[in-house]
Amino acid sequence: MNNTEDYNKIENELSNETITVDEMDEVELVVLRPTDIGYVVMVNDKHKGLLHYNEVFIELFVGEKLLGFVKSIKEDNKLDIVLGRAGFAKVEDEAGKVIELLKQHKGFLPFHDKSLPDDIYAFFGMSKKTFKMTIGNLYKKKLISIASDGITLLK
Q1: Per residue in 77-88, is it b (16+ CB within 10 Å) or e — as a string?
Q2: Quick one: which of 21, 48, 60, 104 could link to 25 by a disulfide (CB 3.0–4.6 Å)?
Q3: Does residue 40 contact residue 11 with C-beta atoms inside 8 Å?
Q4: Is the distance from CB of 78 to CB of 70 less than 8 angstroms?
């Protein structure tokens, strides 16, 4: 049996008849296959869920294991899944990345809330929404300053 057959067999054994997760729960994922609208994933070794392409900012591979959370549970028990940790926990995770990148670039990065989403994703590997929430959090903690030309690490 090849990998595709293995993952098809796994997918056929998953059940969403009785859901054992709630919205916003952190879940373990395994990518099973790409579809026209996203990736079918195994959720907590029990259920099938969908990661929509417009919410995935990295390249994924069949068999890859990831952490995600349940975005929504549809009436028919279909699970919409998003990568990473839910809500503010994700911002906390990304804050360390931004601080480290600032340190690597002599305390300044030419990114701000008007930067293009594609530029933010290419450099930071996160969505513009997450970037804005992260730098807002760092600003409130007085770890960075924000100007029209970028962000600066405060010492």
Answers
A1: eebbbbbbbbee
A2: 21
A3: yes
A4: no
| Predicted confidence (pLDDT) per residue in 58-106, tens digit | 788 999 999 888 999 998 999 999 887 655 556 666 888 899 999 999 9
Three-state DSSP string of 11-61: HHHCCCCCCCCCCCCEEEEEEEEECCCEEEEEECCCEEEEEEHHHCCCCCC
**Count of alpha carbons within 13 Å of 38, Cβ hemisphere only?**
17
Q: Does domain 87-153 have CATH number 2.40.30.30?
A: no
Using left for φ > 0, alpha for ψ between -120 and 50, and beta otherwise, residue 124 falls in alpha
Task: Give SS3 for 105.
Answer: coil
In terms of Cβ atoms closer than 10 Å to its own Cβ (0-12, 13-18, 19+), residue 144 is buried
For residue 41, list its beta bridge partners. Answer: 31, 49
